[in-house]
Amino acid sequence: MTAKTVTLKYDGREYEFPVLYSTTGEGCIDISKLRAETGLTTLDPGFGNTASCVSKITYVNGEKGILRYRGIPIETVAEKMTFVETAWLLIYGRLPTMAEMKKFSSRLTNNELLHEGLLHHFDAFPPNGQPMSILSAVVNSLICYSPEIMDTTDEEAMRNAVAAIISKVRTIAAFSYRKAMGLPFVYPDPARSYCDNFLHMMFSIPNKSHQPTQEAVKALNLFLMLHADHEQNCSTSTVRIVGSAETNLFSSVASGICALWGKLHGGANVAVFEMLSRLAKGDETLDKFIERVKRKEVRLMGFGHRVYKTFDPRAKILKKAVFDLLEAERVADPLIDIALKLEEKALNDSYFKERNLYPNVDFYSGMILRALRIPLNMYTVMFAIGRMPGWIAHWRENNEDLRRLARPRQLYSGPVETPFVPLDLRPDEEL
Ligand code: ACO
Question: pTM score, two decimals?
């Protein structure tokens, strides 16, 4: 794997560090012995230059706009696969056989119900409780009702835990919506597929079963697949770090849900919608808004990415899918026109060109959810359901490969030593 080295000159001495290459050629300096040999650490705020692990799961090339799950291009995943199949691929490392798919699907069905005791938790949340908060709390609480699923040391137990999370997170998400709307819970229907079942739990009422169109089920599959993994992003790194303390899978992914919530990460899909809705009111022209973005008073939400310096391939797929779904469902969405105009203006503006700012996955994802009648406060929850296979795959890989507690260093910039002053002798200072 390694042939080249880099030389570091410091304090009159030279140190050599190996360069490791990814299977596609990108290089990486292995500094794992840096501190031991030189007494130095590295400073990389935001980790823009730091590979935290070696991973076989997902490949992203930000310069060329490439995304592959276990080597399969995202365009192929989007066209030919379902979310459940994608989950298996990410977690187990290859495409499943027909028999493996059937077994996985039946495990998902067997796990789709929640413990009745867990349902009381929903009553404790206020009616307008944030679904992301409910989701993370209830996912973390799953282990209270089935403590045996915490032990994932043997493969069979792991397979059950995987199915339990992927299946139950969908039920929890739908129930948190029903609770917020003051509607009765609709239990999952074992005869339905994963996405069909979610839409059933969201929108059926006791005496009228919701039958989503094929296009709606397809669009939901697509949305979830496109969000299924994206290598070492903020929430996935969180899951890996928490998991490195040998924290159980359920609590680790619950922390991933919290990390995803932020508006610079998964919460951006809500922020995009809010931005487009404000612009749709017409109080501010698009040109004036773009000027404010360029003055850095606001960010153009759904634009820019830490890794992609060209089009996010998921944004391209979603943009087309939005039009397909709106046409199939025969609905119009005025926000689409605003989004298209905003995109065009940004792509032709030197501020965005110079900084390589292009639409990311969140720019159009909200449009799909809107067409599916998913309410705004559920957008990031939908992202979390989609990202679950990725979090699980990374938690597993981290636990199998590294088994080392994640513990970054820091460059301390505080006082060297502060003299202690007893409380009654300290001068009053208003903060
Ligand atoms: N609008 C306006 N300017 C932007 C934007 C934006 N959306 N994104 C980056 N910039 C500017 C920065 O101000 C900076 O300008 P400068 O060089 O003059 O200082 C330059 O572009 C580089 O930006 P950074 O913040 O260094 O880029 P970084 O990689 O840290 O940020 C991020 C990536 C957080 C995604 C950023 O582009 C952003 O805030 N985008 C909007 C929020 C968003 O859509 N998030 C979803 C990301 S995808 C996901 O997580 C699923």
Answer: 0.94
Most ligand 1 atoms within 8 A of CB, residue of 63, 303, 379 to mutate = 303
List of residues 6+ apart from 114 with CB closer than 8 A: 168, 171, 172, 175
Q: Which of 30, 101, 22, 98 is nearest to 57 (CA)?
A: 22
Max CA separation in the chain (angstroms)? 80
Burial class (CB in 10 A: 0-12, 13-18, 19+), 120: exposed
Ligand 1 contact, 353 CB (< 6 A): no
- In this predicted structure, the answer to whether residue 35 has a pLDDT above a threshold of 90 is yes
Per-residue pLDDT tens for 344-354?
A: 999 999 999 99
Q: What is the pLDDT of residues 149-162, one digit of tens each?
A: 888 989 999 999 99
- Ligand 1 pocket, residue 314 CB under 6 Å: no
The encoded tokens of residue 271 equal: 């922020």
In the predicted structure, residue 402 carries a pLDDT above the cut 80: no
Residue 119, both tokens? 């349902």
Q: Above 60 in pLDDT, residue 192?
A: yes
Q: Sheet harboring 72-73: ordered strands across?
A: 58-61, 66-69, 72-73
How far is CA 329 from each of CA 189, 215, 219, 390, rounded to the nearest angstrom?
Answer: 24, 8, 11, 30
The pLDDT, as a whole number, for residue 254 is 98
Q: Could you tell me if the CB of 294 is within 6 A of ligand 1? A: no
Tell me, in angstroms, the distance from the centre of ligand 1 to residue 67's CA: 20
CA neighbor of 336 nearest in space, from 360, 366, 313, 380? 366
Compute the Cα dihedral for 392, 398, 401, 405 and give only its sign. negative
